[in-house]
Design a protein that fits this description.
It contains nine helices and no strands. It is mainly α. It has one domain. Helix 5 runs antiparallel to helix 7. The longest helix is centred in the last third of the chain and has 26 residues. The mean pLDDT is 86.
């Protein structure tokens, strides 16, 4: 898909692949990038200013992802949510989804399983939101990351990605 839709950023994507490993974090990272490209990059048309602007920002955002400090921040956020070290402010939303899923699947209300499912959903969604914001507004993302108010920026600037 990237070769056809955003061939201009293949060098950055290839370098990111070289610099990352194989874990659930990287799998979700690349899924979030794929989803961003699929959902937010218009059809390829180099005469289209919107396309050129989005490609420029995508390339810039991927360059930021090549920075180990940025990847480490995202890694720690993802694993922090997954292991319960960081509880997002909207975690009750994920618990409700998990409880509803458990009820639909007739699995009962095994609290531990529901909590783990909610943490997995929250970690995946938060990583996706961060990637979407980084790729759509790399300068704003980095500015707010450095100033320490990134969560407010994400909440105000990026709409949640439905699971």
């Amino acid at each position: 898909m990237a070769r056809e839709k955003v061939s201009e950023v293949l060098p950055q994507l290839e370098e990111l692949v070289k610099r990352t490993g194989i874990s659930s974090f990287e799998n979700h990272l690349f899924s979030a990038i794929r989803n961003y490209i699929r959902d937010h990059i218009p059809p390829k048309d180099v005469s289209n200013n919107l396309y050129r602007e989005k490609i420029y920002k995508l390339k810039e955002g991927l360059e930021k992802l090549l920075d180990l400090n940025v990847r480490n921040y995202l890694f720690e956020l993802y694993w922090g949510i997954l292991f319960g070290d960081y509880i997002p402010s909207d975690f009750d939303f994920y618990l409700k989804i998990a409880q509803d899923f458990a009820n639909l699947e007739c699995r009962g209300s095994d609290w531990k399983a529901i909590k783990v499912f909610a943490q997995e959903e929250a970690a995946r969604n938060y990583l996706s939101k961060h990637i979407e914001c980084l790729l759509s507004n790399p300068e704003g993302y980095m500015q707010h990351l450095k100033s320490g108010d990134l969560e407010d920026f994400i909440r105000e600037s990026c709409k949640p990605i439905p699971s």
